């Protein structure tokens, strides 16, 4: 699973206005010829990213290359069951990647168009956001 080696602050605030802005970076294909772009905002867990990566590697069969453009670096905390109010913030449970609409999540290259489209659309089922297939013109 993807987790950061070190973070500047162990526990973060949730943040406000997290579903209203569109992406300003990672909006174009940078490495591969085909990509998967987010249409709706979401928090992607490292488990979801890993599940999508496994689907993609099953399709390329040592013929292509995959780039993962997002990384889960935001810590999400969770308090234990039956913990009383006022007992402080919970411990870090998992990490998420903040995905805004327009972010390119995965890129692929080295396989035919129809296989890449099928692979990326299959991987989109594993993710917490609505995605669309994109390619270089």
Our count of helices gives 2
In CATH terms, the superfamily of the domain at 34-76 and 91-135 is Ribosomal protein L16/L10
What is the highest CATH level, the class of the domain at 34-76 and 91-135?
Alpha Beta
User: What is the CATH architecture annotation of the domain at 34-76 and 91-135?
Assistant: Alpha-Beta Complex
Largest sheet: 4 strands, antiparallel
Mean pLDDT: 91
> Residue ranges: pLDDT <50 for 5 or more in a row?
none
What is the distance, rounded to the nearest whole angstrom, between the alpha carbons of the first and last residues?
Answer: 33 Å
Helicity level: 10-25%
Order of helices and strands: EEHEEEEHE
Radius of gyration: 17 Å
Provide the CATH topology of the domain at 34-76 and 91-135. Aldehyde Oxidoreductase, domain 3
Q: What's the total count of β strands?
A: 7
Helix-strand category: alpha+beta
Strand content: 25-35%
Write down the overall geometry: elongated
Folded structure, characterized:
This protein has 137 residues and is an alpha+beta fold. The chain has a domain at 34-76 and 91-135: Ribosomal protein L16/L10 (Aldehyde Oxidoreductase, domain 3, Alpha-Beta Complex), CATH 3.90.1170. 20% of the residues lie in helices and 28% in strands. It has two helices and seven strands; from the N terminus they run ββαββββαβ. It has helices spanning 46-60, 113-124; strands at 34-38, 42-45, 65-68, 74-78, 91-99, 104-109, 131-135. The strands form two sheets. A four-stranded antiparallel beta sheet has the order 3-6-1-7, covered by helices on one side. A three-stranded antiparallel beta sheet has the order 2-5-4. Helix 1 (46-60) runs antiparallel to helix 2. It is elongated, with a radius of gyration of 17 Å. The two termini are 33 Å apart. The relative contact order is 0.31.
């Amino acid at each position: 699973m993807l987790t950061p080696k070190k973070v500047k602050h162990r526990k973060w605030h949730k943040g406000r206005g997290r579903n209203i802005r569109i992406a300003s970076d990672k909006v174009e294909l940078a490495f591969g010829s085909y990509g998967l772009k987010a249409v709706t905002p979401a928090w992607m867990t490292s488990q979801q990213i890993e599940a999508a990566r496994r689907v993609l590697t099953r399709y390329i069969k040592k013929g292509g290359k995959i780039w993962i453009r997002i990384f889960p670096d935001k810590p999400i905390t969770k308090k234990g069951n039956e913990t009383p109010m006022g007992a402080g913030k919970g411990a870090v449970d998992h990490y998420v990647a903040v995905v805004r609409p327009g972010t390119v999540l995965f890129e692929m290259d080295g396989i035919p168009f129809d296989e890449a489209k099928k692979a990326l659309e299959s991987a989109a089922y594993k993710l917490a956001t609505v995605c669309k297939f994109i390619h270089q013109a």
